[in-house]
Amino acid sequence: MKKKVTTFYDVMEARGISRRDFMKFCTTTAASMGLASSMVPQVVHAMENKPRIPILWIHGLECTCCSESFIRSAHPLASDVVLSMISLDYDDTLMAAAGHQAEAILDEIREEYKGNYIVAVEGNPPLNNDGMFCIVGGRSFLDQLIEVSKDALAVVAWGSCASNGCVQAAAPNPTQATPIKKVITDKPIINVPGCPPISEVMTGVLTYILTFGKLPELDRQGRPKMFYSQRIHDKCYRRPHFDAGQFVEKWDDEGARKGWCLYKMGCKGPTTYNACSSIGFNEGTSFPIKSGHGCIGCSEENFWDNGPFYERLTHVEGFGIESNADTIGMGVAAGTAAAIGVHAVASAGKQLTKKDAENT
Amino acid sequence: MSTTPNGFTLDNSGRRLVVDPVTRIEGHLRCEVNVDENGVIRNAVSSGTMWRGLEVILKGRDPRDAWAFTQRICGVCTGTHALTSVRAVENALGITIPKNANIIRNLMQLTLYAHDHLVHFYHLHALDWVDVVSALSADPRKTSELAQSISKWPKSSPGYFADLQARVKKFVESGQLGPFKNGYWGSPAYKLPPEANLMAVAHYLEALDFQKEIVKIHAVFGGKNPHPNWLVGGMACAINLDGDGANGAVNIERLALVGSIIDRTIEFIDQVYVPDLQAIASFYKDWTYGGGISSQNLLSYGDVPGVANDYSASSLLLPRGAIVGGDLSTIHEVDLTDMEQIKEHVTHSWYKYPNGEDGLHPWAGVTEPHFELGPKTVGDKKRIEALDEEGKYSYIKAPRWRGHAMEVGPLARYVIGYAQGNPEFKEPTDKLLRDLGLPLEALFTTLGRTAARGLEASWAAHKMRWCYDELIANLKAGDSATANPAKWEPETWPKECRGVGFTEAPRGALGHWIVVKDGKIDNYQAVVPTTWNASPRDAAGNIGAYEAALLNTPMADPEQPLEILRTLHSFDPCLACSTHVMAPDGGELTQIRIR
Q1: pLDDT tens digit string along B459-512?
Q2: Residue A140: pLDDT band by 50, 70, 90 thresholds?
Q3: CB contact residues (below 8 A), chain A span 95-154, against chain B
């Protein structure tokens, strides 16, 4: 790559941000990712030296809630991510170009940044009807996905559509909408489920990759452990009411007004792995349970088909918070899957590291 | 050359241009036009190219869950499908909601309007009018003078614009243009002076940072945005102002947060969005294209019930009615339950009707997929180079009101409100036209559509304040109920019933039709705004709003589809919304006939 490399620090400097403020930003970033203060120099180094990595954000069958969630990010601000951290060269929701001029960008980036760009997928491909239930540029989205992913460093599967299939894959899945991991099998895939995923989880995943030059550690379902390793129930502020047996029994009853546990109203918090009850949505303003409605489990596989939303979960035992997605209900197969996942991540990490060496 | 029954001349003999993907929209849209030797559009083809089948997925499910499924029809107009759905279910089951729930729902719907219109204007539409690269040659001092002459918005100093310009310059010089890559910068179709471009770019970024604040109101009452939570029978957000446990409910802190967001939303829309709209429009007054069918046929269902559980026209703050043939003196009544009024046609859509019906009301709707290309298609079923509009060419059906193709959306609402003499819509419209020195006819253009949306954003923001005050007044009066659980349990429901729910989505008239049988959904149909506007031709050959609006527009450079984008974007296309039912495994979908 012969192009002049613009680093995160260059951009901040150009915006008149002082060195002192830059250091403060790095400290805050480290803290927001739960890193010890000893890691701050590493964050600083990354911000000073990384080029803006090209991202090709493509859309299949979806509703665009992931894009909408992404632009809600407060730290980092979506405007800073787009202008200063990544190079969002293709995103049909936001890009100025259309038609041929838009499609040309895909080819250009694939060629110029071979092996060094990230594909972000929102939505999923339908396999029925030769893939022609989702047509982009006169061809199936499935074809576009396969082509664009071919030379990618990694694939980020935004949201429950890309990660798990989501609503269009709910029974009877009429278009045979299929998650990315079942179509792209030779690339590291980071699944960021949720309908939508939390804004700061989305930008946090990117910030982590850019800052540390490697992909985050993933669980056996390919989700970043840092955000998806605990159940909503484990961190829920209404948990003490569950333990005390204080439940909402009817909408707007005394328990509802006192903020008691929504378990009997069908809350899926006890079986849902996500960061809603700790990070919250919309800059921590709230999350579903906090607004009085149970969790519908939107980051879990097949959540649309796991029983009606208002039906109480059965078999919820008081298992402890040390349990996680890897240890509950898993058989022997899980070990294999995890090993493959780790291998894929390690390869990607190596590539990123190699790239860094060339640039510095 | 041919003339359509609704009066448009089509000529597909000129050069064919294809725009696919149409970007800066929701979902997947393809557009093809024929241009004559002067680069003027003489034929237009709008094709929806995605299909998900949500309505069939709903069959057999719990009606109380339907809002969550239908909400996922669209994450941009998030909430409006859910609201339409709970209204349809409540209508079917005979459930009434408490006054507070009605106010909170209105507040959430208006929040969506303010947010969605703002994001549409700056992030989906502005680049059709604003040349980002031209902003680099602006004089920051003159930009400041311009900004201060049109608004008291405080971020307007020469230094502010100089810093912003430096940031953009550095970005452009990096060679990594991101979302601005391959844009149509420098096109003669851009008319703004550099200073106006710089001001607009500054506000593009400010609006991107600000929009996330507005939807925190959804988070307070619905837990998150996009896709807040709703509830059949009211809202789940219990209110507890000062009692034991108030800290876990909607309390005074939450209400104060909502109040403060409303103030900031009004400020941003009135001091940034509306002045920008007016400033930009003043440079494009001569660009009078894109009217299409807006000067003939307009439709609105109305929305924002001022009185809980009263969905009649007199209760609705947004106007209801239909205008046909450009006769503003007659507002026709619209009845969503009348089997003769709204019908969907599939002659040119990738569906077929088993009995060859001409058009079907949603309650009797049949949707059977049939992906087939006309004989004049260039390419094949796996690679479409050019569509044949004489055959089937879109996953969007063609809805018609009493046989007429209709335009829906902010312009329809404003013109209907204007024609009804409602001062809330008439006065701001007259003022804007007066300030710009334009006649009423100027409304029936691409720019008129965009202007109506801006005025409506301001209307919505101020109505949010009105709703908030109403909520506080009702709470003061001692009513804190938010949900009516009386008919929550399926045992309380009739064995078989049907209902309809409607809203005005930001993009226009939205209806959901539901049939409930033995406690389960037996049939579910949605007819959405983009189905109306992006509709393909019907059996009689009437063209829809998108296709009509593109006709007779001259293109500065046919290689650069700027004018096409401009007009399509003025409708705020939402393609995920406009997709329809399909049958499982490609087989026939058995459909319930309503007597």
Answers
A1: 999 999 999 999 999 999 999 999 999 999 999 999 999 999 999 999 999 999
A2: very high
A3: 95-99, 101-105, 126, 128-130, 132-141
Give the pLDDT mean for A155-176. 96
Task: Calculate the average pLDDT of chain A.
Answer: 84
pLDDT at A359: 39
Task: Choose among B22, B176, B481: nearest Cβ to A252.
Answer: B481
Residue A112: band (very low, low, confident or very high) from pLDDT cuts 50, 70, 90: very high
Three-state DSSP class for A118?
strand
User: For residue B340, what is the DSSP state?
Assistant: T
Residue A15: pLDDT band with limits 50, 70, 90: low
Which residue of B72, B251, B382 to mutate against A (max A Cβ within 10 Å)?
B72
Which sign does the torsion angle of CA A66, A72, A77, A82 carry? positive
Instruction: Tell me how many degrees the CA angle B224-B226-B227 measures, rounded to the nearest 5.
Output: 75
**Closest residue in B to A176 (Cα–Cα):** B585
Task: Quote ipTM for the complex.
Answer: 0.95
Query: Which of these, B106, B422, B155, B146, lies nearest to B283 by C-alpha position?
Result: B146
**Which residues, including other chains, have CB under 8 Å from residue B444's CB and lie 6 or more apart?**
B291, B294, B295, B411
Q: What is the pLDDT of residue A9?
A: 67
Phi, psi (deg, nearest 5) at residue A141: -60, -35
Q: Would you tell me which residues 77-96 of chain A have a C-beta closer than 8 angstroms to some C-beta of chain B?
A: 77-79, 82-83, 86-89, 91-96
Which residues does residue B515 pair with via DSSP β-bridges, in sequence order? B498, B523
Q: Answer whether residue B593 shows pLDDT above 50.
A: no
Please give the tally of structural domains in chain B.
1
Distance of CA B517 to the CA centre of its chain: 32
Query: pTM of the prediction?
Result: 0.91
Stretch (H or E) spanning A157:
strand A154-158
Specify the CATH number for the domain of residue B203: 1.10.645.10
DSSP 8-state symbol, A299 = T
Domain boundaries, chain A: 50-227+339-359, 232-305
Q: Do the beta carbons of residue B573 and residue B29 sit within 8 Å?
A: yes
**Is B408 among the domain residues?**
yes
Contact A154, A348 (CB under 8 A): yes
| Phi then psi dihedrals of residue A343, to 5 deg | -60, -45
Percentages helix, strand, coil for chain B (3-state, rounded to 5) are 40, 15, 40
CB contact under 8 A, A78 and B56: no
The predicted-structure confidence for B208-243, as pLDDT tens digits, reads as follows: 999 999 999 999 999 999 999 999 999 999 999 988
B13-43 tens-digit pLDDT = 999 999 999 999 999 999 999 999 999 999 9
Which residues of chain A neighbour B220 with C-beta distances below 8 Å?
Answer: 285-286, 291
Residue numbers of the domain that contains B225: 2-348+393-586
CATH 3.40.50.2300 fits domain A50-227+339-359: no
Task: Find the DSSP H helices in B437-576.
Answer: 446-476, 529-533, 545-550, 562-569
Q: Are B276 and B203 in contact (CB under 8 A)?
A: yes
Please name every residue paired with A134 in a beta bridge, in sequence order, or none if there are none. Answer: B50
CB nearest B24 (choices: A95, A126, A170):
A95
Given CA atoms A250, A252, A258, A259 in this order, what sign does their dihedral have? positive
Nearest to A291 among B23, B236, B395 (CB): B236
| pLDDT band, very low/low/confident/very high, at A31 (cuts 50, 70, 90) | low
Please count the other Cβ atoms lying within 10 Å of the Cβ belonging to residue B513.
Answer: 27
**What's the CATH fold of domain A232-305?**
Cytochrome-c3 Hydrogenase; Chain A, domain 2 (4.10.480)
- Are the beta carbons of B29 and B22 closer than 8 angstroms? yes
Predicted local distance difference test score (pLDDT) of residue B522 = 93
- The residues, any chain, with a CB within 8 Å of residue B78's CB and separated by 6 or more, are A65, A68, B71, B112, B218, B225, B226, B227, B228
